Structure formats: structure tokens, C-alpha cells
Amino acid sequence: MMENKKKPNPIDIHVGSRIRLRRTMLGMSQEKLGESLGITFQQIQKYEKGTNRVGASRLQNISSILNVPVSFFFEDAPGEAADNQTGFAEASSSNYVVDFLSSSEGLQLNRAFVKIGDPKVRRKLVDLVKALAAEAELE
């Protein structure tokens, strides 16, 4: 059982997790994304885990299908100059968003919220959630 135990590159893992994040935000299955690219859902799984590296042209196609700029997949990537460009508060707040959207409740809330067309209703909903959070802090 001599498997290749090479660890995936941290950037490949990050890009894969951002692909998964955006795909799930849109409520798109791995099968649907794979179909749009002419590849299997297993290949999408490997991209999302970072076990297979996403080539430049493929990443361009994915960004088009998921309707985000290619740079989206590199936001908050580990290492290099990214650490110097954002303050600690910004970095931790963007991680909070990723954690929220990676949760089942966060995804459900996000999908339902974007379907609300009336900006006044959306504003009232945000106010309600803030009020509930403030109450929870008092307990």
C-alpha cells in the first residue's frame, strides 16, 4: 500500500475551499459544476479538497460559471504579502464570514435572505437579528 502521501499545497487547499464556498452559496451541486465544465463530480471533489491543483484556464471557467472574479479564489490565501495588506480585524472578520457561510444554518439563512426582494424587509430582518443577538448577550 505505497500511496503518494504528498501533502496538498496550502494555496491549492485554499482555492479549493473557496470554490466549494461559492458553489454552496449558489446552491449548486458538485455534479452540476462538473457537468458545466465537462468533468466528473469526483474531479470537483479533488479540486475542493486541494488534492488536485486547478489549472489557470479551468479556474477561469469556474470563475465564469460561479459568477465571481478569479481573484475571489485567492482572497485571504495563506502566506505572502496578504498578511501585511490587511489588519488583524479585517482578516478575522472575513474568516468569520467564511465560517458562517460554511455552516448549514448560515447557508440556509443566506439563500433565504437573497430571495427577499424588498430592501425594507431585508433591513427589518437585519434589525431583528441584531436585537435577538443583543438580548442573547444580556442573558
From TrEMBL:
Annotated CDD domains: HTH_XRE (cd00093)
GO molecular function annotations of the record: DNA binding
Pfam families: HTH_3 (PF01381)
Gene3D superfamilies, sorted: lambda repressor-like DNA-binding domains
Boundaries of every HTH cro/C1-type domain copy: 19-73
Identification of the protein by name: Transcriptional regulator with XRE-family HTH domain
Lineage of origin: Bacteria, Pseudomonadati, Pseudomonadota, Alphaproteobacteria, Hyphomicrobiales
